[in-house]
Amino acid sequence: MKTEFLALLTHIRHLFGWLPGLLSSILMLCVAGLVAELFSRFITKLILRIPGQKRGAFVRSFTMAMQRPVRIMLVIVFVGTALPVSGLPYDIMQATTHALVVLFVLMLGYAAVVATRILSDAYLRRINGKDDKDDILLRTHMTQVRVLRRTTDLMIGLLTIGAALMTFEPVRQYGLSLFASAGAASLVVGLAARPLLTNLFAGMQIAMTQPIRMEDLIIINGDWAWVEEITSTYVVLRVWDWRRHIVPISYFLENTFQNWTHNSAALIGVVFIHVDFNAPMDRIRERLREIVHSAPLWDGKEFAVQVADCNAHVMTIRVIASARSAMQSWDLRCEIREQIIAFLRDECPEALPRDRLSHVASVSGLDVMGEPGIMVPPVRRPPPGAYMGPRNGTGGGGMGSSDGGQGHG
């Protein structure tokens, strides 16, 4: 078949013999590329006619995504096959062959990246389409697939560029001499690439061990943050107020952090209520039970009311209630606070916290607040009988003598 194809191309070249030699050779190569294009379109149409709802749909989508790189590689193969009979000068033929080899290597790497993405997306859609899917399992697979896909893309890119550069003779000789020396130069390169390699291997380790997953809720720098994106070198964390933390991926292997959704998204929320000692605990406990049991955010698992602490002024009631996620737990706690505060204000005002001041008398019966030397200086009052007020209830004589005052006593 190859011989017949070359014979056909030779015949086509002879048909363009009336043109200049270089132009007729270029036209022959264009015909070879056109034949490859038509052949690729024919094969693509045949594959797209494959029936089926699941496997057939996957084959069709895979073909549509891969048709561009495969078509270009097919054109390269056909043109490269036609080069020996093209009649081009030797120098031009060698340069064209080298350019086709480099282009074929690059397109092969691109096709590998596209195929990896298609297969990983199909796997994620299959996991996401299950009716009995587990949120933790889904996020685990999403994290593993995305991290490994980015790592694979990076490795394919490095190998593709390396393979393309090795087709150049100077680069190949430099690479061989560098590997042969394997001395200080390799050490310098290794030290320079240490941060990249550290994060790269950390990403692979995170994909395997799963300390964090996509959409995990973690605590970092005192902020709630969701894992929005995991790349091969860093992690993007989305804070509740839409800020973003960009954290090196190695941070999650070298530092401790809180992951609130590692095994389960459910959390137990805690509400503290400070009340007076006269608070009717039976009524408060019953009202809290009604509030929690009627709340749609409660998952029906954990609920308790206890007097957790007390001091000289108030006692502290601790209420625990579980919810399906951290955000639902936050909203549930806010709802509990709002309703129990309204209940205490309207129906149990004696339970509201208050300040107390005790007025204690001394042993001798004197007022402690007025006792000399304790809290305030003594008050010097006039002796008894020095002044008894206005005489006969009138305003006159207010400064009468002591004798007159004593006579009215």
Biggest sheet, spatial arrangement of strands: 4-3-2-1-5
Structural class of the secondary structure composition? alpha+beta
Helix and strand succession? HHHHHHHHEEEEHEEHEEHH
Largest sheet: 5 strands, antiparallel
Mean pLDDT: 76
Poorly predicted tracts of residues = 178-187, 365-377, 393-409
| Shape, per Cα inertia axes | elongated
Residue share in helix: 40-55%
How much strand? Answer: 5-15%
Strand tally is 8
Report the radius of gyration as a whole number of Å: 44 Å
Q: Total helix count?
A: 12
How far apart the termini lie comes to: 146 Å
Structure, described:
The protein is of the alpha+beta class and 409 residues long. It is built from twelve helices and eight strands. The strands form two sheets. A five-stranded antiparallel β-sheet has the order 4-3-2-1-5. Strands 6-8-7 form a three-stranded antiparallel β-sheet, with helices on one face. Helices cover 55% and strands 14% of the residues. This is Mechanosensitive ion channel family protein. Residues 196-262 form the Mechanosensitive ion channel MscS domain. Keywords: Membrane, Transmembrane, Transmembrane helix. Its main location: membrane.
Give a short overview.
The protein is of the alpha+beta class and 409 residues long. The protein is 55% helix and 14% strand.
